[in-house]
């Protein structure tokens, strides 16, 4: 078994490591840990975070790639978990949880009928049998879920100090997730949970694989946009004068160019470059991955200006405050002032920006795919799914499940991110619109 | 009219001086935008490549390319012409030659031979027909709902509507468009699915995209206006108004709403000029022949002249938007004077 | 027998976790001025707000409030009383008026609410009210916006709004605290006149006992949510019962400074700080704001120099110029024999330090006190940048060394002020500039801080330049005084001489407005 590291894999894990370090630092800092406890004190935010964390887990599991010794296919850990869905070779559409294909066609025996799906057991030949089977599998799943949940609760009660009464909604969420997992695990070897698409590929598989793409879009872009935003924002606000003028000129000029046009232009350049150097990449997977990464870079280049403006405004206010004046009076060097006084006091803006922008970026991915400047067609993403599925709505009867699946998966991620971001903003924004 | 001018002469002079000064500051920005667009595009295509794409045919000879380049003015060096002397080193280049007409707002001809200025003049009307109603209806709807939520501050209903707006925000705009087209137009036949007709009939084609645009922006819009209202309502002068004996409702409408107009204006006026550019997504989905779809088509066919013209136009409109915001600020807020 | 207008019984105000006002009771009679005195945090403002049900949403109240036999406890009918029977004026007039309505319109609003006058009648009535509160009665004044009138005038507008409704009870929450000393007196005298002419009752909330002495008929002292005394004014001032009241009444003793000074440390010669005004298309400098307009000063070793003036006089700008935060437009400031410009940052910082006016923002909220103190030391005096030295420093300013591990928000204003001083003395400077060192402090703490500064002077030989608007501390603290107004020095000389014999009318007005 050989491990394959894609660029985005590497960066995602680096991001994960950084967040773990951040968690340790927060726990050590009294002021910050108080604020974070406040964030999680709201049940809605806690539940949203749990769902969000679940998505992250899936994304991470999809970010460890390897090759088996006798195989040339690259798998990720997630791929192996969803193997039955991946390897079932269906031919075309089928509706969710069905046992046969969607449309009638001419069978081997000359009659018109529906082809039985490969994945589903051959014993099931009609709808009522199918339903019975589904119900029994679901009941099993429920049983396992309850057992696992009970063990989990006992474990918590015994080994940790977490109060089980106050966090009711969090536990409901966790139970729902556990049930979801058991249900999927039991169903998947035998059914296409969300049906199959035109080429016979399992829709559930595609939707889940797209999580990683959405995650990368949302997280990596912001991560890449941070350095210029923070550095230039701090410099403009602290040094003022000519430095400020130059930096303002830069971001006004970039902002003046209509966003989509700038992105489209940069993507086109990217496309040309990659086409010319096509032979440099080991596999299609690596190439499409690189495109994903560079797309994030492009988005970061066009979106850093918003945060830069905010940081500049905040730094202007901060540099008038007495403790900054005091540091200057004491002869503390500018670099130290920037790092020790100004940067920590703008980090709340950075945090709010990270969580607020996340959902917007995930949504933009879909739009970019539509315009034609999105991720590679071979990359699994909700945008690609939507784009492909759009035309399917006009078929008769309607093929609705690929579209619905991608929207629902995207919606849940964005909703939980938004609910969580809302709470973060409430706690960290000194103005604070609601009574936190 | 004359009396008005004379009475306010001082203020008007100040305003025009201010506008002129800001216009001067905008020139370096336009120059920068122009330079960036130029660089970007020519990193992708050399003039030779452009010729090949436009000529389209399989076997294109070097002579064909040369002729095309001469016709379109791409037969010079990009930035610096070392064959010339004096000022012509910089002026006899593609960059200079192609940039000058831009600043005169003469966008010339597209690489496929169309007259861009004419296209813009024709296509801006459908864009406006879509953009202006969307803007106004969205503005009113968002403010009404935001005010309603502020009036319910602290109640359970407010908390639920808060979550509801977050949910609305979390739904992709594409969802609204696709479902809207499919169900409202396709199944219920309330509106035509797409297309456009000039003149009086245009409202039928514009209604669905306007409706969808308003609903898609409802979540985020209501939240934004709500946060502005809340910021105002927490200010000390609102307490004074209450102490005077005004009811909560009177306080909201007479004081909070009016004062909130100032920050609202900053956020709203800045986008008005850009309404000309049209919504790229809406126009493509609904086949409305506006400037937005014009731009997308140009991107897809890599027509540099059109893309460059649209970028330039967009930048000017953005700068005009900034200018208008500052000016409107001075009208509405008596504390601000022209500096 | 005076008629009771307002009666408060067993009023308590609490948050989810604690009780802020603890079961207090008092009453106000018709035509009476009742002063509710206390320091910050005593609950006096909250008491006032609760009468008209204007408490913040997270505060709850209990108890009975009766106004002329009507029960005010129910929030439904409180609106009938607001503005018409009970009027309220707030502490900070700058933000208490709607910035986009003219002052005339704001008074007109009150009239429209509580009277039946037609529009034209209201307009002339507004001007009438302007007259009653000593505002200019022209239409130009009517059309002015709040930012175009002074603090004192804004407060008068608020009073006019109160009168417009025909209120019988005026609740004034620290009405003059944010105003200059000269304006304070005028506004208070206006209130006295209104009480006389209109039989207006006033509930006066204040922390300033000199205001109480001038205005009140009866006094109640509040401390940490309780009313500890409630008496007739004369009796209270002659014979305060509680220990706390006695502490509040302490006034600054006369100065006993010795006159021996050393060499000249800092000398300012024809100092000018001008800010350019740029107008026109090309933004050319057409004029200047003359913040500091030719000031001369000398500071000798062991001497205390006070620069006195009201807001806008230029005193803070002068301090900033001496600290080299602003450049001089003209003139010289020299230390020793060298112009201060010529010193490099560190050597000047080692000689001249500053204690800022705003105590809360003098410390980075995210850093512990120890980190802040160490930062300065590491830059200037690395040898002493250690915990032991910090502990010594804190003891010097009479604080428990344990406090150095705290964050700024955990400490009181007085403690932070001492820490500010600790930071300044940590590098053993020769001169310390104190910008309004006592303005934000309660009366009891003021003297302590001044005594601390004087003690440090004796022990370490520091000389002070003190910037203040409070002329009462000048007597106690300063050897030499410069009185500034609009950038110019109106008087300059030895403290005793100027206080005894002010030449300038402005100085005379400043001195006479000290209500003690």
Structure description:
The complex is a heterotrimer of chains A (436), B (339) and C (516). Chain A has 436 residues and is an all-alpha fold. Helix content of chain A is 70%, strand content 3%. Chain A has 15 helices and five strands. Chain A has helices at residues 7-28, 30-41, 43-61, 77-81, 83-87, 127-159, 168-187, 203-239, 241-256, 259-276, 284-320, 322-329, 334-371, 382-390, 401-428, and strands at 2-4, 65-67, 74-76, 105-106, 112-113. In chain A, the strands form two sheets. In chain A, strands 1-2-3 form a three-stranded antiparallel beta sheet. In chain A, strand 4 (105-106) and strand 5 (112-113) form a beta hairpin. Chain A starts with a strand and ends in an 8-residue tail after the last helix. Chain B has two domains: 25-104, no CATH class; 122-332, MetI-like fold. Chain B contains 15 helices and no strands. With 516 residues, chain C is of the alpha/beta class. Helix content of chain C is 36%, strand content 27%. In chain C, a hairpin with a 2-residue loop joins strand 19 (480-485) and strand 20. In chain C, helix 5 crosses helix 7, helix 7 packs parallel to helix 8 and helix 16 (413-425) packs parallel to helix 17 (443-460). The model of chain C has no long low-confidence stretch (mean pLDDT 86). Chains A and B meet through helix 9, helix 10, helix 13 and helix 15 of A and helix 2, helix 8, helix 9, helix 10 and helix 14 of B.
